[in-house]
Amino acid sequence: xxxxxxxxxxxxxxGLLGRLPAPGxxxxxxxxxxxPWVFAPAPPLVRFTILALVFLGGSLACDMVERRxxxxxxxxxxxxxxLGQWITVAFLACPTPAQYIYAFALFRLFDMxxxxxxxxxxxxxxxxxxxxxxxxxxxxxxxxxxxxxxxLGV
Length: 154
Fold this sequence. Notes:
mainly alpha, 0% strand
């Protein structure tokens, strides 16, 4: 495996986390644990720039991993979980610990249930773009649900 393939695999899998059982859960947990220090303190424009970079970088990396393994949406690719989890909290000015817990649970729920059009979106775009898109949409569902919970005072 060439250096570029190793780098793409390391990025797409968040190092060794993508090789653990239930890799999506581990990727989401890692994303929510680092968000208070890496993502949430950033101003909105920087947050959305980070999301765009994760989407683009994740698309490229997951595409390379998918082609190398010759498997559609390999479980090893969990950078999409970071994207979805961070989209879930991107609209909150200063998330509380409880909101991070809700964000984690909601994103995992929508990522697993894949309500329309989340499941269909996996096939709208080829390769890594499709891998990233479904989690981006699940993140939007989660952000909306989290906003409703906050509005209700939960």
